[in-house]
Specification:
The protein is an alpha+beta fold. Helices cover 18% and strands 27% of the residues. The chain has 6 helices and 14 strands. Strands 4, 5, 6, 7, 8, 11, 12, 13 and 14 form a 9-stranded mixed beta sheet that branches. The chain has a 3-stranded antiparallel beta sheet with strand order 1-3-2. A hairpin with a 3-residue loop joins strand 11 and strand 12. Helix 1 packs across helix 2. The chain is globular, with a radius of gyration of 21 Å.
Length: 307
């Protein structure tokens, strides 16, 4: 969400020419939806060469877009008494086992029922404030339908020290997942830059311009008839990294509706991916902690069912 009204101008480049106005805007502002821009266009908040156009107007090279993003309404983020599966806790950090379908922090369409709402209730006033009111205590995140271990920081000192470890890629992060197809090599490394998909704003992609270095180490745990149970260790931590890398490797995660294809069996809710282990240097006393999150029951059941 934008914190205040802004007016920005963009000149259309040759590679952007021919796209609909609403789609062009959603690519320029990937955090905002195409339907949101259709609403702004109807309200006259978007100008093309100082003229109001319709959403289906196709932009030309050299067009000058003037974009007004209205001031966002303040949303109160409230504590909620939501049960937490706590794996570790002290006065500095909290490690929780995030369940499936829980969003980590509030965002458009998700202002309640998030992990932030739950930890605000559990920790009261003991949360770091570095990431602001929307993301108190949150130093990293995992996808809504990914389960497993996630660190919450209770004060700013802890937040700074954990964030430094994440930036330096020194945090241990091991995931378990089931992918489609039978992976041949017993282990290996997938490398390929990851960045925002050039056309589909909700997706990431490999080897795109301005992508960031991404490295995933993998190990086969068990092979099935048409699937493979695997362990992944992140050397870097990019958005959707394991999901994007495995899809680029030809073995998308089972249940992944964004990067996979075909009918999803067993009525799965999103990708079968679990953050099983997280290890870090404690921000106060310097000892190394490695915390394991047990596999959720749906995942264990699925492993028993696979032929």
């Amino acid at each position: 969400m934008m914190e205040s009204s802004t007016v920005q101008q963009f000149e259309i480049a040759s590679e952007q020419a021919g796209e609909r106005l609403d789609k062009t805007l959603s690519l320029l502002y990937p955090e905002l939806s195409r339907s949101y821009f259709q609403k702004l266009i109807k309200e006259g908040q978007i100008m093309v060469n100082d003229v109001v156009r319709k959403a289906n107007y196709c932009v030309d090279e050299g067009d000058l877009l003037s974009v007004v993003i209205p001031r966002a309404q303040e949303i109160a983020i409230l504590p909620e008494n939501i049960p937490l599966d706590i794996l570790y806790e002290d006065k500095d950090v909290l490690v929780v086992n995030k369940p499936k379908s829980m969003v980590v922090h509030p965002s458009a369409g998700h202002y309640s029922g998030t992990l932030v709402n739950a930890v605000m209730y559990h920790c009261k006033d003991s949360l770091s404030g570095i990431n602001g009111e929307i993301r108190p205590g949150i130093v990293h995140r995992i996808d809504m339908d990914t389960t497993g271990a996630l660190i919450v920081c209770k004060n700013d000192q802890a937040h700074v020290k954990i964030a430094e470890q994440i930036k330096e890629h020194s945090v241990t992060r091991r995931y378990l997942g089931i992918v489609r197809g039978v992976v041949g090599p017993d282990n290996g490394v997938i490398e390929g830059t990851i960045g925002r998909h050039p056309r589909e704003r909700k997706k990431m992609a490999v080897n795109v311009p301005n992508g960031k270095r991404a490295v995933t180490h993998y190990r086969v745990l068990q092979r099935f008839q048409n699937h493979t149970y695997m362990e992944f260790e992140l050397e870097t931590g990019r958005t959707h990294q394991i999901r994007v890398h495995m899809a680029s490797f030809g073995h998308p995660l089972l249940g992944d509706s964004i990067y996979g294809s075909g009918k999803i069996p067993w009525k799965l809710q999103g990708q079968t991916l679990h953050a099983a282990v997280i290890g870090f240097i404690h921000p106060a006393d310097g000892r190394y902690l490695e915390i394991e999150a047990p596999l959720p029951e749906y995942f264990q059941s699925l492993l028993r069912k696979l032929p």
